[in-house]
Amino acid sequence: MAVRLRQGLDGSLATLLATTRFFGRRYPVMFAFGVGVSVQRLISVAYPDLWPPAAGVAGETFTLTARLLFLGWVARALLRQPGLTTHAPRRLSAFARRDWPVLVGHLVLLAAATLVFNAVLEGGGAALLPESARPTFLAWVLAVKNVTVIPFTLVWLVMMVRDALRRVPEVVPPVSGPQPHRAGGGPGSRSAG
Fold it and tell me: How far apart are CA 61 and CA 51, in angstroms?
């Protein structure tokens, strides 16, 4: 069991390294998708009176749209290999059953990243400041995270899916309807003799 968990963590670390390479090589694109969201978050949290629509439904709609467009771009970039997404739900299900230690490794790494970036940096940093400075600090943390941590995490999640699909060969879909009779005396068949 410990060996499988170690192999799972190694697989997760390999995915994290591939994510880092992809992210670093394409960072200008990551920044372009995230900079508008960073500005929206900064205004909505620290300076809501500066431009009220940024703090309301319009701002949230903008953020959601930008993230969905970014996710679409990442999925297109990482999942466009021919046949990679064929029977994806069945293949991902097979991956989860067969390679569950890799999923455990991903969960451990994601939990560690969440702890560092949310609890320690964000929560710990805010706790050190006077109450009046916390909204501005948190707004700037969100602005920075929207061009770093958040797009990195989205790339990482898509990279996890890609790697899971690569680990499971294409699964043939089940045949629906009556099964054809096979000659040759297999299990359950009767041969005239």
Answer: 15
Give the pair of three-digit tokens for residue 59. 């701002």
Is 173 within 8 Å of 90 (Cβ atoms)? yes
- The whole-model pTM stands at 0.82
* Distance, CA of 127 to CA of 118 (rounded, Å): 12
CB 51 within 8 Å of CB 43:
yes
Which pair of tokens denotes residue 58?
A: 């319009």
103 vs 66: CA distance, rounded Å: 28
Q: How far is CA 3 from the centre of its chain?
A: 26
Q: Which two tokens stand for residue 24?
A: 């670093």
**Radius of gyration, CA atoms only, the chain:** 24
The predicted-structure confidence for 106-163, as pLDDT tens digits, reads as follows 999 999 999 998 888 888 888 899 999 998 999 999 999 999 999 999 999 999 999 9
Q: Which of 38, 36, 39, 34 is nearest to 70 (CA)?
A: 34
Residue found under tokens 């790494």: 109
SS3 of residue 74 by DSSP: helix
